[in-house]
From TrEMBL, chain A:
Name of the molecule in the record: NADH-quinone reductase
Biological process annotations from GO: transmembrane transport
Coiled coil: none
Keywords: Flavoprotein, FMN, Membrane, Phosphoprotein, Translocase, Transmembrane, Transmembrane helix, Transport
Organism per entry: Maritimibacter harenae
Cross-referenced InterPro entries: NqrB/RnfD
Keyword Phosphoprotein: yes
TrEMBL record, chain B:
Residue span of region Disordered: 1-29
Segments forming domain NqrA second alpha/beta: 114-255
One MF annotation (Gene Ontology) recorded for this entry: oxidoreductase activity, acting on NAD(P)H, quinone or similar compound as acceptor
Name of this chain's protein: Na(+)-translocating NADH-quinone reductase subunit A
Entry coiled-coil feature ranges: none
Domain of life: Bacteria
Lineage: Bacteria, Pseudomonadati, Pseudomonadota, Alphaproteobacteria, Rhodobacterales
Entry's Gene Ontology BP terms: sodium ion transport
Length: 260, 422
């Protein structure tokens, strides 16, 4: 008869609050450029949310702000406004809204949008993230864990993989590489809806993200750091259901062994 | 195990958390016994309205299995018997009448499971066992694959069941021994961690589980799910520890104990109470003069898993009074329409959800299987070991609509209709 707190919209609200330090560090570095990009992206995202509300009766979500922030921060500079609108629309509509809105989607809409822009316009330059964004991302992760929105297992898995990569001599902690890795992880991989939903799956997804970063850093020459990180986030995102399924298989096997 | 043990949740209810330790006996002047089943329960009457009955005297019995009786909760006059056509029982109302006395049952010489079960059936104590899948009363010739005795309750505001039986050691031991004869499988006793309980007499049959304090470790569901999952072929029973002591008392003296403990809590109470009442006691009379002025919602159960009730039914050891804020202002029509447009509402995984079943099962895959109506996946994840009260915490946390607990009920009912063909 009494009601708890964690509906879809409260999760979105607290997630947005958690991401504020990251947004602030980024906006202080980018100034008006960043603000304009963010506002334009917000308008596109919410135009589609409005359209789906009117046509499909899908309630709009505060999570659209998070999507817009991620796209504004990480998307490559598209050749012209039409390409940008197309890319963002593709991500928001195909990545999220056709599945029924935030909470039912399988991929992060921002990941889809950025991948579309990045691989659709290969000549477009990828953004450079400010070094301060590293600290913003760490603060965001801390707040997310405190609210119970970011899985500590996902973080630990990524930290282990990246730590091993650093020990192997890869430039993971380089001040021009670390921001891209961390910001992409925070904004895209840690999304509670589309990341793995089982405890073992989260460990695996964190390890996979870190492992892919290490692989790309050592083998993929000539790629921008955000491009590397985005590719890792996209693959980690795509494999989340598979990792969950494997985690369930492991759970069933353990249970069969214990209960006979 | 150690890393899992701290998992659980504390639910804020806006009321003093625990009922006091001391209790007063209170026999209300009216009591009502209702059908132990949600569906058909065809009965044969043994008394007529107006008859005087002794406490513990059988007043009606099941037509399907005539050993199974329902007994009078107190010395009383039968006031009204509410039946649907076809002799289907709804409820029986009693008025207290001190002249009635107590009914004594003959204690069988044999101590095998069949003899004990027949005695419990005659004495009405069969209703204390709750059978999973589906939480129906244990009925007929079915035998469980395991029995869980719950001496731990972590629902917000719940009392401490172990305190209620601490001076009934001999009866509890006799009861544990008796229910050990009802099953070939294990008997588990779930107690709070570190609590003192003497089970030496029954130690060869009873395995003790020490569970931590956060909710939902005091519910039977997560324990059953991780230790002896229930299925239609292998049902599992759970029973409250006080009812086990009652069984012991019946076997030692021939009398069914008159009272049970009920914790009366919630923000609607001026102070939480602990009362010893008869089965089917009148909640309004128990609360008279003890509530905060205003309109109330009275629930049997806790604030998160309770259902509106007027009488203290079987298996109910907690009553919650909430303040009724009155009818809510209807939301804006567009908001209301959008909220109804696509059900079930999406649930987003949070740390709270991960802990909502003690880590006994991956929660999100279970919720997805239940809300998709995927019986096979839900069964593999142990959904048949769970009942509404186990998922109430998830519904509380996420304001799920429709409730996951209701969707589980639909799933189990459908599976039962498909698998347990009559």
């Amino acid at each position: 008869m009494i009601k708890g707190l964690w509906t879809r919209e409260t999760v979105a609200l607290f997630l947005l609050l958690a991401l504020l330090p990251l947004a602030v560090t980024w906006i202080t570095a980018e100034r008006w450029d960043g603000i304009v990009r963010l506002l334009v992206t917000l308008v596109i995202v919410y135009a589609w949310q409005l359209a789906f509300m009117l046509l499909r009766a899908q309630p709009p979500s505060l999570a659209g702000v998070i999507t817009a922030l991620a796209i504004a921060m990480l998307a490559p500079a598209a050749p012209g406004p039409f390409a940008y609108v197309l890319g963002v629309s593709f991500g928001v509509v195909i990545g999220e809204l056709v599945f029924g809105g935030w909470g039912r989607n399988i991929l992060h809409p921002a990941t889809v949008a950025i991948a579309f822009l990045g691989f659709g316009y290969p000549a477009a330059p990828w953004p450079e993230l400010p070094i301060t964004a590293t600290w913003g991302a760490l603060a965001a992760l801390g707040i997310g864990v405190a609210f119970g929105l970011v899985s500590i297992r996902l973080m630990a898995g990524a930290a282990i993989a990246l730590g091993l990569a650093a020990l192997a001599g890869l430039p993971v902690a380089d001040p021009f590489i670390a921001p891209a890795i961390l910001v992409t992880f925070t904004l895209l991989t840690c999304d509670p809806v589309t990341s793995a939903a089982t405890q073992l799956g989260r460990w695996a997804q964190g390890l996979l993200y870190g492992g892919l970063i290490a692989l790309f850093l050592s083998l993929w020459t000539g790629a921008a750091t955000v491009q590397l990180a985005l590719s890792a986030a996209l693959i980690a995102n795509l494999t989340a259901p598979l990792l969950d399924e494997l985690a369930l298989l492991a759970w069933h096997a353990r249970r069969r062994r214990r209960l006979g | 195990m150690a890393s899992r043990s701290a998992i659980g949740l504390t639910v804020p209810t806006g009321a003093p958390a625990r009922a006091p330790a001391d209790s007063a006996t209170r026999i209300t002047s009216e009591a009502s016994i209702s059908s132990p089943f949600r569906g058909d329960f065809r009965v044969e009457l043994l008394v007529e309205p107006g008859d005087r009955v002794a406490q513990g005297q059988p007043v009606l019995r099941a037509i399907k299995a005539r050993d199974f009786a329902i007994t009078a909760p107190m010395p009383a006059r039968v006031a009204r018997i509410d039946m649907d056509p076809g002799k289907r029982l709804n409820s029986v109302l009693f008025y207290h009448d001190g002249e009635g006395g107590r009914h004594r049952f003959d204690i069988p010489k044999a101590t095998d499971g069949a003899a004990i079960w027949t005695l419990l059936a005659n004495a009405g104590l069969w209703r204390a066992f709750r059978q999973r899948p589906g939480m129906v009363a244990a009925f007929g010739a079915a035998r469980p694959a395991a029995i869980f005795v719950m001496a731990h309750d972590t629902r917000p505001g719940a009392g401490r069941p172990l305190d209620w039986v601490h001076d009934r050691g001999a009866e509890l031991a006799a009861g544990l021994k008796a229910i050990g004869a009802l099953t070939e499988g294990p008997v588990f006793l779930v107690t709070p961690r570190g609590a003192e309980v003497d089970i030496r007499d029954a130690s060869d049959r009873v395995t003790r589980i020490e569970a931590p304090a956060p909710h939902p470790w005091g519910l039977a569901g997560p324990h059953i799910l991780s230790r002896a999952p229930a299925s239609f072929e292998r049902p599992v029973w759970d029973i409250h520890v006080e009812a086990v002591a009652d069984i012991g008392a019946l076997l030692r003296s021939g009398y069914v104990p008159e009272t049970k403990h009920v914790a009366i809590t919630g923000p609607g109470m001026r102070a939480p109470l602990l009362r010893r009442v008869q089965h089917g006691a009148d909640i309004r009379e128990l609360m008279l003069g003890k509530v905060v002025p205003g309109r109330h919602i009275v629930l049997a159960g806790s604030a998160i898993d309770g259902t509106r009730a007027r009488w203290v039914g079987h298996g109910v050891h907690q009553v919650t009074a909430l303040m009724d804020a009155g009818p809510e202002k209807p939301p804006h029509w567009l908001r209301a329409a959008l909220g109804r447009s696509a059900r079930p509402l999406p649930l987003v995984p949070t740390a709270g959800l991960d802990q909502a079943l003690c880590g006994a099962v991956p929660v999100m895959p279970l919720i997805r299987a239940i809300s998709a109506g995927d019986t096979e996946s839900a069964r593999a994840l142990g959904a048949f070991s769970l009942v509404e009260e186990d998922l109430a915490l998830i519904d509380y946390l996420t304001q799920a609509a429709p409730k996951v607990a209701d969707m589980l009920r639909t799933l189990i009912d459908r599976a039962e209709a498909e698998e347990v063909a009559p």
